Amino acid sequence: MTNKDNQNEAVAKCTQRIDALGTYAPAGKMTVHGATVTEAQATAVYQACLDTRKQLTSLRGQVTAALAARKAADAAMTVFDVGLEAWVETTFGPTSQAAIDFGYARKPVAKPTTAVKAAAAQKAKATRKVRGVLGPKQRKELTAEAPVAPPAATPPAAK
Predict the structure, then answer these.
(1) Which residue segment(s) compose the domain that 127 sits in?
(2) Which pTM value belongs to this model?
(3) Residues 6+ apart with CB under 8 A from 29
(4) Which of 21, 52, 121, 152 has its CB surrounded by the most CB atoms within 10 Å?
């Protein structure tokens, strides 16, 4: 069942209950869940359900329109932003304070320190040792050292 089916069923149920209350509710009061209510109070419960569904349907249309407007505004902003960035970079320079204020300045990439490089090399060496990974030179040495077996002499054929 889709949401639309549920929506239609709820509207049909509320409308049916309102009609039946108008026909069968006693002129005085009735007891529902231990509370005494009038026909108007009971009808108001179902009418509120109908009213809120109608309001929500209207708001969904507004939300759809607002989302479409936001998408169009975002697309226009993205196109404009490219041009503005070019203007800022050519007018003030790509690393200027103005570029930083606009949020366009390219942040310099932090160069790793020698201590970080040494630690990385040590970790890489340990990983290779644990995993048994060899470089191309080590693999070449392994294949070059493999002994080549001389061809086996065939025994003379027996007569």
Answers:
(1) 114-143
(2) 0.45
(3) 36, 37, 38
(4) 21
